[in-house]
Amino acid sequence: MKGITGNLNWLLRLEGLTLLTLSTVAFAHYGIGWKVFALLFLIPDLALIGYLLSNKAGAILYNLTHALIGPACCLCLGLIISDSQFMAIGFIWSAHIGFDRSLGYGLKYSAGFRYTHLGTIGK
After folding, report:
1. What would the pLDDT profile of 58-83 be if each residue is shown by its tens digit?
2. What is the pTM assigned to this prediction?
3. DSSP string, the chain
4. Which of 62, 79, 98, 104 lies 20 to 30 angstroms, CA to CA, from 45?
5. CA distance 119 to 101
């Protein structure tokens, strides 16, 4: 699989870093405590357990927890019902995704963990 190279690679990583930064700043406003942030930050990575079953199961679970659809829905629901806990969880979740994307960990293909929409990891 061909990876993203050059300036586009750096732009996408900077985009992830921006998402991490803005989500963390927003969490500080809606937040429910930094201990909660630290506790929940790595929860999306529990999806990696899917790789124990198969590459396909791992990719599906990883993508379900690392696409921006989930945190966007959580944030939208938090806005609609005025619930700061939903907002905080949405910001923690999106911060995690931004962190991963800034490191080059993109959404996965079923070929294996290393194969992402941002290119191959560890090549």
Report:
1. 999 999 999 999 999 999 999 999 99
2. 0.93
3. -PPP-HHHHHHHHHHHHHHHHHHHHHHHHH-S-HHHHHHHTTGGGGGGGGGGT-HHHHHHHHHHHHSTHHHHHHHHHHHHTT-HHHHHHHHHHHHHHHHHHHTT--PEETTEEEEETTEETT-
4. 79
5. 11
Measured between alpha carbons, how far is residue 65 from residues 1, 47, 93, 118 in Å? 23, 7, 9, 17
Mean pLDDT of the chain: 93
d(CA 112, CA 110): 5
Tokens 């529990």 — which residue?
46
Name the residue among 67, 62, 65 with its Cα closest to residue 111: 62
Question: Cα–Cα distance between 39 and 90 in angstroms, integer?
Answer: 14
* Cβ neighbours of 51 (radius 10 Å): 17
Joined together, the tokens standing for residue 121 give 């990891």
| DSSP letter (8 states) at residue 108 | E
